[in-house]
Amino acid sequence: MATERPVPDKLRVFSLNCWGIRFFSQHCAQRYEMIGDLLDREQHDIALLQEVWSERDFLFLKRKLSSSHPYAHYFKSGVIGSGLAVFSRHRIQDALLYQYSLNGHPYMLRHGDWFGGKAVGLVIVDVFGLKAQVYVTHLHAEYSRAQDEYLPHRIVQSWELLQFVRHTSCGADVVILGGDLNMHPQDLGNRLIRAHTGLRDCYTETDTFDGCEDGHTLIAVNHFTKKQDLIPFEKGIRIDYILMKGSKKVSMKCESLSTTKGSVAGKPFPYSDHEALTAELTLLQSEESRQHGQRNISDSHTAVSEQMDVVAEAQAVVKEGLCHTETLQARALHLMGGALLLLLLPLLMILLPCLCSCSHFSFTTTGLLLAAGAVLLLSGLLLYLLFTTHIKVLKETEDQMKLTSDDLQSKLAGSRASGFSSSDGSPESSSPFKREE
Amino acid sequence: MATERPVPDKLRVFSLNCWGIRFFSQHCAQRYEMIGDLLDREQHDIALLQEVWSERDFLFLKRKLSSSHPYAHYFKSGVIGSGLAVFSRHRIQDALLYQYSLNGHPYMLRHGDWFGGKAVGLVIVDVFGLKAQVYVTHLHAEYSRAQDEYLPHRIVQSWELLQFVRHTSCGADVVILGGDLNMHPQDLGNRLIRAHTGLRDCYTETDTFDGCEDGHTLIAVNHFTKKQDLIPFEKGIRIDYILMKGSKKVSMKCESLSTTKGSVAGKPFPYSDHEALTAELTLLQSEESRQHGQRNISDSHTAVSEQMDVVAEAQAVVKEGLCHTETLQARALHLMGGALLLLLLPLLMILLPCLCSCSHFSFTTTGLLLAAGAVLLLSGLLLYLLFTTHIKVLKETEDQMKLTSDDLQSKLAGSRASGFSSSDGSPESSSPFKREE
């Protein structure tokens, strides 16, 4: 068994979707004041914020937290921004942003996710001399659970998130991911992320939880929540998370997790329409990392099977998304055809003078037809380009999932033939370069 | 000194910009036939192709190379695609795509880079039991060296490329990057990539080079090259590269590098308007990786200084790009203002009947004014959104560069105070968690 030596190093991580849409979100300025006070008082090691849509609000927090959290990064992308911000008591050494390739539709103005340029931000933080890779993200919202037209988008985002985490975290001592995933705990995207990154959900990992029932982060008793958005989950839903994993060198334990409970003592309204999460993580140094690593090998077969199942589910969703997007692409083509007809009509009116006997009729109608035709043609063209790029993204995701699926299949076949013999579950190689554990 | 034990494992890597624009690039189908024959005959371990714009051409190559290169991946992004393809004799285990955030302007139809969705593709290849991370990329073209309006775009792309490589390659045994960087060897972006990733240029690393003078990959004697594009570099330029680096476990040596020389024996035209590169890499297993790692420490101070200088240069370019984009954003606003005036004009014509005395004049003019106004308003809005996202990207890059610069500064300060004592150049930490070498 691994010898774990407890050290005094704890890490307190905070995550909150701030609902910071200026001039739209209620009591925005006052709430940022409250959030700033909370962070300044609580002195979390790392605070991960989402929906900080205005840079001015980020700068306000940065000034307010200059002594408690001297390090901060605000991730900028899309038209409005990613809304993602990190405040840290420890030095941020580096930052990297991965903008999701698929993120709703620009014409869905009332949803507006597209304009946010949703992304996953990574900051590399030097925590007690350890390399902590801290990810903050916000995935596309779910506007209707019964008819979720954005499901393929969220699955592609989950896939890109897990791929990004998987491939950037290999040198990390400690990995933390926080944010608003807009998915229930057992939703496909969530299972996909957990199964393929090895990240563990602080809520299910901790023995000490203090917060809303079932860990809900969107609850009916919150002043700002629209009750109809929660139907059929009257009590609430859990869509905000802090996930974590250690490394061969350091193992992590979630000592406790808490959420706010829909109100703030002495204040007339809560911090946001979401509840905030605070996780207290203990870092344990594994002296026998090799032995510790070995502990995971025994269940690799099950893990690989689970990974395969969840990828297969995701492949089906992406395939469906692809069919739907191809239909939309065809409709954009039809729109362009219709627009061309509209543009031809005025020509017909000139050629058939009888229709133009009333100059007032011609004057108004021709102008409107030309204007409408031009706008529709341009819109059709833009929609066609948009759906074409979406198809490209969906196909790329499909191909990547196929590769992963094939790789898992060969691992499974290898494990059947000889048993898992390397720590990452890959079969032994016959190469002169043997992997060192 | 490190004991390096040569092993028989060699790796032959091929890179070519295929210039595969269907119905535009000359002799496209015949050239793909020739490229397929070449790859099938030469049996390179890994072939990295760029500008494979049509998926049909990729599928043609895939069929043709099904026995010589059973593994392939085609990266899909943007409207047309990324144009990036990988063919491999070794199993591709996984793939990941990072699309560059800044890639020209959609309205520059004659340049067309924007539609390509330029990106860096990563495939993870199991080579002789080693984890090889192979990157293929194609950066924004340089249309005028004297007045390079896309320089900030290419610098942002270089930055994103180096960040992506830096953060995804930490678990690799072997790292290879190939592609058309559209930069001369000593151009800023190229220096930025080399300094911050540690990747080494096969051309400067090898003792055995066989190819065009000075390693040029775009040469005047190539049948397809537009001679005016090369001015003032009459003989040619070197913009295609194979870069490489090893790891603590494996060191790499470029045994030889060759290029095609503008013609193909027995054929009336060359493979492409670019020359192809072939690198023969030797993999050496470092038994004393710790000692081997130590070898790099002595020059860390110089390396950090160089990294700082090159980041400072890049920051200046990004700053300039930001100013220029802000001007463009303001112009888009003016365009929208002008369009609104155009839309108001027909209203004035209705209110001032004297102007409408000639019905034919009104009929045509009003229609055109309305159509032009609508199209200009929509165009102005789209341009405004476009430049707003570009500003976001430039600011994000600026922030990331600032973080890196600060981090390097603190490393330099640390090295002055105590000397570099850890292999990655970071000063010793006082943490209970000491980094293990």
Automatic annotation (TrEMBL), chains A, B:
Keywords on record: Hydrolase, Lipid metabolism, Magnesium, Membrane, Metal-binding, Sphingolipid metabolism, Transmembrane, Transmembrane helix
Pathway membership, UniProt: Sphingolipid metabolism; Lipid metabolism; sphingolipid metabolism
UniProt topology in membrane: Multi-pass membrane protein
Regions of compositional bias (Low complexity) in chain numbering: 414-431
GO cellular component terms given for this protein: membrane
Region annotation (Disordered) ranges: 413-437
Domain called Endonuclease/exonuclease/phosphatase: residue spans: 15-247
Subcellular localization(s) per the UniProt record: Membrane
Transmembrane segments: 339-362, 368-387
Gene Ontology MF term list: metal ion binding; sphingomyelin phosphodiesterase activity
Example GO biological process: sphingolipid metabolic process
EC number: 3.1.4.12
Enzyme class at the top of the EC tree: hydrolase
UniProt superkingdom: Eukaryota
Entry's family note: Belongs to the neutral sphingomyelinase family.
Protein name as catalogued: sphingomyelin phosphodiesterase
